[in-house]
Amino acid sequence: AQKVTQAQTEISVVEKEDVTLDCVYETRDTTYYLFWYKQPPSGELVFLIRRNSFDEQNEISGRYSWNFQKSTSSFNFTITASQVVDSAVYFCAVGTTGTASKLTFGTGTRLQVTL
Amino acid sequence: GAVVSQHPSWVICKSGTSVKIECRSLDFQATTMFWYRQFPKQSLMLMATSNEGSKATYEQGVEKDKFLINHASLTLSTLTVTSAHPEDSSFYICSARGGTSNEQYFGPGTRLTVT
After folding, report:
1. Cβ contacts of B98-102, under 8 Å, gap ≥ 24
2. What pLDDT does B114 receive?
3. Does A106 touch chain B (CB under 8 A)?
């Protein structure tokens, strides 16, 4: 069974602050995928990143960056210079590979960015 | 990019009636579709996995006779909530896997309210 823990239920920051969302996962699979999704108030899930368990390189995409540490089973997400439009619920997920792959989501972190 | 649509986007029905939700992959063939349920301020919980032309695989605790899933073609899966009750009120999200990348793409969700 897989499990994802997002210990931060809600985070509130002022615009332009940096914020890191934590994600710790559990899986028995040796090969797996890790994901981050954003869910704005409209409800639609927005895909942010997928990371293969073999690839521990950190990734930066604009104001977003991800820190994958297999040794601690963590896949943290940092938003630099946050903006009001970043306000949303962010979900971390772990997925199995293969044709029967399924995603297991964390409970989400609600990020509120204020002026 | 791969687009998944859901119809309707929201529906209100009376207790005891049935309601059908459609999930379509618009520009790719989806070999597998997934149905999730999300209660307010909670995570996405996988309900079932369906493969085209075969019976859906339900997650533990999900009543297959209550949540009927049909995946009749490579671009369409339907979820029918039978004899709906107020506790079935939720946000139902589908995802479809396929296309060249074999990624999982999410629909915009359907908000069901049972009165």
Report:
1. B98/B2, B98/B25, B98/B28, B98/B29, B98/B30, B98/B31, B98/B32, B98/B74, B99/B2, B99/B28, B99/B29, B99/B30, B100/B28, B101/B2
2. 97
3. yes
